[in-house]
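Reagents: none. Just compute today. GMP synthase (Glutamine-hydrolyzing).
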Amino acid sequence: MRPFLFLGTRAEDDAADGEYDALLRCAGLDERDLRRVRLERAPLDEALGGPVDPADWSGIVLGGSPFNLSDPAEAKTATQHRVEAELRSLALRVIGADSPFLGACYGIGTLGSLRGGLVDRTYGEGVGAVDVRLSEAGVADPLLGVLPQRFDAFVGHKEAVTRLPEGAVRLAGSATCPVQAFRIGRHVYATQFHPELDVEGLVHRLTIYRDHGYTAPGGLDDALAAARAAKVSEPPRLLARFVELYAR
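Predicted 3D structure written out:
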């Protein structure tokens, strides 16, 4: 089997390793079959020893990020500008080839800003569980359709899609964020919710990012309590299904 490629951007080792370990577990892969590149450390082509050819991989998975596409340009670090440029270039190649791609959370900013799409701060959601509902297209979709028509998932984002890219198909939404998942072409996906996060994973990540503005001042304890009380079980099936569909 050709390996899958996982792209991460989290600078904190605890957060980066926790995300990667969760993806391995949920997707049913080992490290040999899910190659990791931490983009915040080095340029993608440098890390892989040359340009990325989507055909060399069973599929590409992009994880979440502390970066936001909608951050003011002057507030972005040189690393963030580089990562955004690299991901935009890769996304355009992936879309052009209609190669398997799944972007979780940060993938919304990466894909949602292409082809006339708009990503801004209109539909940000605080950290916690939300009620996600599949659209009619989502129910019929080969990937999203593995999930129930209605399920709880963990979110936590400052930006979201306000206008879908031209030709994109909305697959899921929530009451506070109309676009929780969409597809471009047949095989390129983005989700706003985190398919890799369970209760333990969210509690761990919340603690790491306590000072990043995802919870209100002094609200960490409430967010942790709400996370521990949540019933989130379905989203990890999405990662196993992605592997099932595209491993080759």
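The radius of gyration is 17 Å.
Action item: order primers for follow-up constructs.
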